[in-house]
Amino acid sequence: MIKILFEDNHLLVVEKPVNIPIQEDESKDKDLLTLCKEDLKRRYDKPGNVYLGLVHRLDRPVGGVVIFAKTSKAASRLSEQVRTHQFKKIYNAVICNGHFKESGTLIDYLVKDEKKNTVRVTKESDPKGKKAILRYQVLCQKKDLSYVEIELETGRSHQIRVQFSSRNAPLWADQRYNPNAKEHAQIALWATSLTFFHPVTKEEITIVSQPPREFPWTILEEV
Question: What is the pTM assigned to this prediction?
Fold first, then answer.
């Protein structure tokens, strides 16, 4: 059952479960977009296909706030907000570095290998490099872990994971960018809140979703 965080005639905001693709991929596993369409069709007894517009994405292993548009007009207006950086996206993460600087801005140029589905940091002069910017604040530190709050300015593929990993601070249990990640453990990255302007009323809305209360997220409560 998908947890609904907000819904009206124009929007559907849900909490994405971990390890579910946001849209159909080559795995052919059930994806969030299809699950939400099926849920709308069932709840409102809609005939035929249900429209639901994908506005932004989260990596498959990441959970948290995701917004869908229930009309094409809403989808267009929300996509424009994403393009012009009007979406405020806050993430929480636990990184494997207990001495990371308390706060700062990370700026890199990233290149994606489409065949391997991996991203790496490159030089500013690289024509394939895309600028990636995030701001972060360490909320607590315990032993070799830091619990951080992150605001994304750009939304590059695997951005948070690669930017921290390149600074000797890979995310807890990141199977792709943390060479010491425990197998089958769940990556500690969560889309905690999303702030945007309603596509029709223009009202500013913030939707929040908390990370699960399990290790390593519980270090915040322990400290």
Answer: 0.94
